[in-house]
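Q: Can I see a sequence and its folded structure?
A: Here is a first one.
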Amino acid sequence: MKSKELFPAMFSRNAAAYQRRLDGIMARKEARGRQRVIELLDLRPGMRVLDLACGPGTLSKPIAALVAPDGELVGVDLAEGMIQLARAVGIPNASFQVMDIEQLAFPDAWFDAAACGHGLQFVPDLARALGEAHRVLRPGARFAASVPLSNDNQRPWMVIDEVVDRWLPPAPAATDQQSTRSMVADPDAFRALALSAGFAVAHVEVIEEKVRWESAEQLVGLCMSWWDLAARVERLAPDRRQAFMDDAIASLRRDHPGSIETIGRNHVLFATV
């Protein structure tokens, strides 16, 4: 299955759960990778900003506030369910459209800045997506994007993986993802691709973020919205889905009877036109 056949529909089905999880970590200032994207853009009132793969408006709301009252935020995403939620937030100076970030329907040099929070890793043609971001930015404009790195070697995720292997079918695989995943995981390759897309300057930094989960129940409940887990859980009958969650919670409690802390790492690309 191709990326654009798999991810938009899956994210649309799980948009509400995704929004609840992201709203929580943003409110607690734990989403350091995404927050770093906003910091790097140096936003000011009156700017026109593009939010690529905007999801339910996770970055859109704080960005729109920074460019208000005369500035404008435009968010785009291929998942219609995400766009519906973003529109429902009711941001006065923002608009949202279903759109492919590899084929943006905007004129050249239209935006003063562009952001992308945890979306580039899903595009099959990363070079094309970066080229489109560069095309729609005016000279001197800033672009920043955060992508998550693997954290599978932490004990809480290892415990969940063991339960997943007992209960769930394999995750559906996107057959056109390997090149992009390899590229964003390699800071030198990621930077080089941005430069080849036309950006004058580019660098990649590693941002670490700590997330605190109040309990095993909270962690399991919220991580069900992550794309790879959601795509597997939704294929279970309701009774088996609940049994899986019960097993995951009990297994985590044995190691972590109280709150749980996990550490995530992100590559944050910053580039200028």
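Q: Show me another, different protein.
A: A second, unrelated one:
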Amino acid sequence: MQSYHKREKDMEAAMRVIVNPVAANGTVGKRWPQIQDALWAEGAQFDASLTEGPYHATELAKEALSAGYRTIVAVGGDGTLNEVVNGLVSAGPVGSTVNLGIIPSGTGSDSVRTLGIPHDYRAACRRLLRGKPHCVDLGLITCVSQGRETQRYFLNVAGLGFDGEVAERVNRNSKALGGTIPFLSSLCVKLLTYQNKPVEVILDGQQRLQQRVNSVIVCNGRYFAGGMHIGPHAALDDGLFNVVIIGDTGKLEFIANVPRVYRGTHLSHPKIAEYRARKVWVKAQERMFLQADGELIGEAPATFQIIPQALRVLV
């Protein structure tokens, strides 16, 4: 752990910055000295902790809360942000005195697109120090992982099916070329073998859908996969998910419509439907992988529940 400009007598004014140095194939670690300088230039008083492995950011966020910090900042991509969020809310609501800050420096950094936080680290540091807290909803997933039930929160987008398969391959391969190119290459490779799957989806315990699908995508935010505008109507503070179901599309049909997803015009396609719900239950007849904020976390059956106004983010 590294420590910078901490004032013990003024802990509430200080920040704990959690840095994932291996994010974006190590780019974040190389860029951290410049991010640190940018924070100092804005007059920030902070401690910094560098993660040492998977889920370490979650533990560091828990430790920061216990130590009395009231602003915890995630430096990395969507995966790092997801870990920090889970650390902050794992014991329940954190109250109105705790703020989450974000300096996006990872591969995709799709969460900040909806929040309006700049991707440039210098501008993000300025926003962090001058921004105001905004309450956002979180999603809570209950699913299966390695044969056991598990729960995980997400801020942005979660998805089952082809979406989960692509996320699994992206995370196994290099992200040195950024978020969009690895996603598109993995998408093309997975399309060669992926078969659409029959599912049952229940929305708010009332509406029941049974069909063969490519993906079931649960949107709290609007973007995923390095800039795809998957949920153009989603809002982080409306207490609802926007559920996008990509139906039984053929391989060529799917590829032909990928540009429409980047533009956010895909919802008019006859095999794509959008629903709004507070709780979503998905059961699959075949194995179906699940990703949340770009990280593979488990598989179906899965339940998604909205947690309104769960966290304050500096924007």
